[in-house]
């Protein structure tokens, strides 16, 4: 994709490229957001309830976005008078929905203590440790400590540094400097996290100064990689052999760890690992003394139908390090974390006694108050079970209604985390030309009247540049009737978009 083409699109925090609402003209004859002499755009509200920001560096400086004025449960209220059903929880974030009074009250109580923030270099706060205890208990005590920060990208940065320090504590000249990650992956926007990522379009502008010690194996994408007649066991064995070969190529003694998402989110559109895959990858890592690292920023904290995605039917596959975010605070505060195994914590306790890393807003009490109340709500209301139950129903209905659609190549996911991949040819799995903007058309159509529902579009699904998908990730409080609504709207949007395409000429 050319730089000029990219400039017309918007990249979100997951690395997807999307098209925002188009600018509209107002009665004074000037385009909204026209440039002023000082270089700022002029803030004007459009007739459709959108506006450009005057001072904010927005997702796209030449586009406008609908204005949200409020929300309740699964609904968002817009300035143009519409109510939009949030079928994606934002970016799989707002797992408890909007305007949850219990969480808001918990935040308010902490703010009213006068200490929404304390400097973690000098002080601790009881509510922070209470949250960490809740999170460790959620692993059945299988993890050891929690590092609290503000975003998924920060969590991956911390994980990369902590993984290296694990070996450095025992050997200041440790040869372990290499990471193995996967193609078509996305782990964050900061330089270190982007270096771990395999999202080619997102990496492209920054390739000259990304880490060179990150090496790749293929993703675990059964839809595009499984051979005819290949069993799960054979597919997993092939993936394990590929990882083993990469260890041997690099030198096993040089590898810090292997990093993957149990369910790949925005980069591939909810592609779950094949049963047995996580265990096989972990076994290869541990065979060579390397760390097994999971990124659950998007797919974790109940989203996949278990509190942690590694808590699978095949039995827990406990990571050495794990990132978490999004559903941790449900959007009520910017908060993320790294779960740290007892093995890794032991190296610090027996060594320097500290993690050589830190943030100003690390372990903020107000963040902890929000995340703790979110997690207690999920646990006490048994919402992970609702994710599992409604997720199974969502899968059933999507496959029944859209499984035979000629341009729906695959419907995949876990829990309330489902992706639909779109193809030009269902037999060959040939993707559409990215110039058609299929995913963007679907997302824009869905959020517009009369549908008024969010879909999360993604591109690069097939090879990092081409391929289209959309994600559905409703809240954990979604009901069966609301699942029916989501499926109905999704089917209508898909049918409308493809009926309006001249497929014969493509």
UniProtKB/TrEMBL annotation:
Pfam families: Aminotran_3. InterPro entries: Aminotrans_3, PyrdxlP-dep_Trfase, PyrdxlP-dep_Trfase_major, PyrdxlP-dep_Trfase_small. Keywords: Aminotransferase, Pyridoxal phosphate, Transferase. The keyword Ion transport does not apply. Signal peptide: none annotated. Gene3D superfamilies: Aspartate Aminotransferase, domain 1 (3.90.1150.10), Type I PLP-dependent aspartate aminotransferase-like (Major domain) (3.40.640.10). Belongs to the class-III pyridoxal-phosphate-dependent aminotransferase family. This is Putative aminotransferase. It comes from Lachnellula suecica.
């Amino acid at each position: 994709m050319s730089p000029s083409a990219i400039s017309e699109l918007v990249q979100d925090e997951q690395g997807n490229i999307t098209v925002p609402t188009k600018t509209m003209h107002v009665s004074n004859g000037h385009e909204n957001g026209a440039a002023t002499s000082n270089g700022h755009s002029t803030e004007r509200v459009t007739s459709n309830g959108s506006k450009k920001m005057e001072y904010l560096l927005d997702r796209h400086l030449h586009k406008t976005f609908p204005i949200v004025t409020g929300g309740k449960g699964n609904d968002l209220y817009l300035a143009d008078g519409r109510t939009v059903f949030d079928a994606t929880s934002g970016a799989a974030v707002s797992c408890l929905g909007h305007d949850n009074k219990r969480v808001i009250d918990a935040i308010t109580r902490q703010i009213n203590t006068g200490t929404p923030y304390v400097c973690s270099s000098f002080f601790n706060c009881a509510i922070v440790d209470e949250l960490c205890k809740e999170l460790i208990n959620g692993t059945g005590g299988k993890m050891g400590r929690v590092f609290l920060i503000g975003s998924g990208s920060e969590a991956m940065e911390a994980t990369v540094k902590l993984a290296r320090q694990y070996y450095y504590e025992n050997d200041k000249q440790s040869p372990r400097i290499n990471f193995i990650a996967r193609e078509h992956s996305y782990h964050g926007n900061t330089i270190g996290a982007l270096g771990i990522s395999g999202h080619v379009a997102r990496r492209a502008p920054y390739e000259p100064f990304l880490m060179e010690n990150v090496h790749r194996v293929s993703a675990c994408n059964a839809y595009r990689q499984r051979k005819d007649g290949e069993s799960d066991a054979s597919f997993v064995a092939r993936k394990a052999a590929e990882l083993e070969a990469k260890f041997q190529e690099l030198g096993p003694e040089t590898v810090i760890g292997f990093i993957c998402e149990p369910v790949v989110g925005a980069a591939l559109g909810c592609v779950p690992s094949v049963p047995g895959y996580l265990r096989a990858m972990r076994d290869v890592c541990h065979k060579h003394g390397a760390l097994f690292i999971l990124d659950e920023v998007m797919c974790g904290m109940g989203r996949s139908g278990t509190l942690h995605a590694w808590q699978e039917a095949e039995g827990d596959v406990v990571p050495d390090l794990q990132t978490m975010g999004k559903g941790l605070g449900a959007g009520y505060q910017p908060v993320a974390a790294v779960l740290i195994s007892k093995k890794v914590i032991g190296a610090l306790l027996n060594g320097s006694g500290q993690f050589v890393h830190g943030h100003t807003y690390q372990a903020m009490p107000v963040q902890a108050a929000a995340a703790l109340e979110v997690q207690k709500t999920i646990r006490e209301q048994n919402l992970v079970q609702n994710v599992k139950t409604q997720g199974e129903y969502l899968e059933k209905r999507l496959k029944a209604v859209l499984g035979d659609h000629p341009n729906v190549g695959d419907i995949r996911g876990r829990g309330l985390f489902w992706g639909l991949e779109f193809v030009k040819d269902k037999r060959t799995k040939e993707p559409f030309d990215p110039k058609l903007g299929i995913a963007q058309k679907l997302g824009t159509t869905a959020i517009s009247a009369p549908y008024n529902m969010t879909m999360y579009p993604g591109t690069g699904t097939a090879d990092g540049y081409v391929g289209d998908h959309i994600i559905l990730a409703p809240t954990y409080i979604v009901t069966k009737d609301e699942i029916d609504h989501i499926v109905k709207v999704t089917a209508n949007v898909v049918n409308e978009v493809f009926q309006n395409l001249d497929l014969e000429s493509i």
